[in-house]
Amino acid sequence: MKKGKATIHDIAEKLNITASTVSRALNDNPRISENTKKLVLKMAKQLNYQPNHIASALRSGKSKLIGVLVPTANRNFFSSVVRGIEDIANELDYKVIISQSYEDSEKEIQNIEALLNARVDGIIASIGKNTENFDHFQKVLDKGIPLVLFDRITNQLDVSQVVIDDYQGAYDTTKHLIEVGCKRIAHFTSPKKINIYKERLRGYEDALKDFGIPFDPELIEESNMQLEDGRTSMENLINKGIVFDAVFSSSDYAVMGAMQVLREHKITVPDQVKLAGFGNEPFTSFTAPPITTVDQKSIPMGRVTAETFFELLKLDGKKGNNQKTVLKPELIIRESTQKSN
Amino acid sequence: MKKGKATIHDIAEKLNITASTVSRALNDNPRISENTKKLVLKMAKQLNYQPNHIASALRSGKSKLIGVLVPTANRNFFSSVVRGIEDIANELDYKVIISQSYEDSEKEIQNIEALLNARVDGIIASIGKNTENFDHFQKVLDKGIPLVLFDRITNQLDVSQVVIDDYQGAYDTTKHLIEVGCKRIAHFTSPKKINIYKERLRGYEDALKDFGIPFDPELIEESNMQLEDGRTSMENLINKGIVFDAVFSSSDYAVMGAMQVLREHKITVPDQVKLAGFGNEPFTSFTAPPITTVDQKSIPMGRVTAETFFELLKLDGKKGNNQKTVLKPELIIRESTQKSN
DNA sequence: AGTATTTGAGCAATCGATTGCATATTTATA
DNA sequence: TATAAATATGCAATCGATTGCTCAAATACT
C-alpha cells in the first residue's frame, strides 16, 4: 500500500474545498460552518486521515511533546510521577518523552539539550543528585520554554515547582519514633545540595527539639543513600559503639541496607532497633519486618506537576508567577517501628 | 530574546551561498568542497545554529525518534532494557520515546497509535501480559514500519525479536534445585499466552524429566504472578496439604509473596523449602534470605534489541529476514537455595 | 585545442498543516 | 433599499530543511 497517506489536501479535493478550510474544520475553528465540519470529519474518517503532527509542529511551532527528565525511571517514585504526568498529558493530547539522567550531571545536560532539539514544548524535570550547577536549566528558562521541577528541586532557580513537604514527613516520622519510645534516633542523610535531604534533616531536628530530645551529631550519618551506603552507615554506628534505638533514613534503600547489617549482627527489628525510611518503595512492604516509611504521593505529584506545567504553557512565554506546590506526605506505619513490650 | 533561531538560511546569507549548500555542508555531502564545509560549520557555531529536527523530519520523512513500548518502566528489567536501547540510540543520534501500556491491551493499542502519530521511525515493544490480539502490531508491520519485539513476544507475528533463553534459565534453575536435594519442586506460572512462561514451564519439566523426577500437576500454580498472587499460590499449596520442598517461580514478585507466607507459617527458607525466582529484580538481593533468581541480561538485551532495530531501519522498508536473537540468561545463586545440612 | 568528466553550488519544488489577509455570500440594521 | 456587520471560505505565504535537476567552472583525456 502507498503509505496510506491521506492529507488535508486529499480531503479538500474530494470535497471540492480548500485545504485551509479542511484544516480549520478539523481544528474546530468557529469560522467554519457546522455542515462543512461534518463533511470534513466524515471524509477524514473515510480516507483514514491521520494528521501529520510533524507538519503541524513545524508550522505552529508546537510539537505537543513534553520532555520529562528524571534521574531514573527505575524507581517506583519516579515512574509513578511519570504515570501521573502521562495521565494528564494524554488527556490533553500531549505525548511524553522520558529521558533519564542516571544521576549524572553530564548526561543531564545532554538530555536537556536533546529534548530541546526534539523541540519539546516544555520540560518537566527532577534534578540529579550530583548536579550542583544549574546553567542548563537556566538556559531553558531563558529561552522562555516552560519548565517545572518536581521533588528534586533547587532554590537557585526561579521556577515553578512541586514537592512534598519533606520537613513534615520527616517531622512526623521522627515524632512517631519518639512516641513508640525511641530516645536515640540515628538519621541517615545526604551531603548533597538538593533540598529534600536538608528539609528532612530539619524535620528530624525540630521533632527532637519539640519533644525535648537532645540532638547528637554522632547520630547523623551522611552518605549517598544507596543500599550499600546504608550498610556502611550502620556498620559505622555499630563499630563506633554509638548507642541508638532507631534509625530514620532519608532513603528506603539505605534503611534496607541498615536492616541487613542489623540482622547480621543479630540485632532485632523492631525490638532492639526501630527503622523508618522515606519513599515508600514497594520493597519496604515486602521485607521482614515490613518497614515504616513516608509515602511521597507520587501519582498526585505527577498530576499536579503536569497541571502546573500546562498552566505555564497557557501563558505562552509571558512571565507569570511561579507556582510552588507542596503536597502532604503520608506516614506509613509498619512493623519495623512497632512499640516493644 | 528573539528565540535565538538561526536557520540554514541565516548561515547561507552570511556566507553568500544558498541554503541548499549549507544543508549539504552540514550533512557532510561529498558534493560540497571541504573548504565550504569548514566555513559553514564555523558560521553555524558562531550563530549558535541548532538544526530544526521537525523541519528535517517533515521533509525527509525521518523523525529520528524511536518509540519504545513497555508494560511498565517501573520494573528493573524493563528500565534496564530501555537504558540499553537508549545507549545505542543516542550514539546514533536518535531519541527514544518511552510509553507504558501498564499491561492494559487497550492502552497498548492507543500507545501504538500515538507513537505512529508522533511519526516515530520505528517501534520497539514488549507485549503486555493481557494482550491476546496482535492486530495493532500487525498494522505497524503492514505499514512497513520497523518493529522489534523483546522479551514478551508472540509467535503470531512475523517479526524480529530478542529474547533470553527462558527455557534454559528455567532448566538451569530447576536443575540447581534438584542438585541441592529438592524432589518436590512447585512451579508458579502464568496462564497467559506469552511465550516466556510457556518456555519456563517447559524448561522446568525437561529438567525434572532429565533427572528422573516425576512431573506432578498438583505442584503447578497458575496466577498473574504478582506478589499477592504468589501469596495466594503458596497458601493454596499449604492449604491443600501438598508436599513440596522448593518453589521455582517464573516471577520474582510471586516468589517474594511465597516467601512471606512461608515465614508466616514458620516454614524456614532454605532449610524446609528452597525458593527461586526469575528476573533478578533488585529486591531479591535485599531479602532475608536473598533469593536465587535468573538474571535476564537486561542491558545487553536492550543493546541487542536496538542493534536489531537499526539494522531493520537500514533496510528501509525492504523486507529482510527477521532476526531472532536469543541471549543466555544467568542463574544467580543465593541463600534461598542453599543446601540444607 | 577540443571534447568529456568531474566537481561545486544554485534553483525551486516539496514535505503537510497553519494562518493572516482577502473575498464572496448572507443576514441584520438603519 | 442601501449599508453595515456577520458568516463561510479561499488564496498564498510560511515553518526550516531536503533534494532532484540544472549549470558553470575546473580538470582530464585524446
UniProtKB/TrEMBL annotation, chains A, B:
Pfam families from the UniProt entry: LacI (PF00356), Peripla_BP_1 (PF00532)
Domain HTH lacI-type, residue spans: 6-60
Alphabetized InterPro entries for the sequence: HTH_LacI, Lambda_DNA-bd_dom_sf, Peripla_BP/Lac1_sug-bd_dom, Peripla_BP_I
Keyword entries, A-Z: DNA-binding, Transcription, Transcription regulation
Keyword Transmembrane helix: no
Keyword set includes Metal-binding: no
Protein name (record): LacI family transcriptional regulator
Organism: Belliella calami
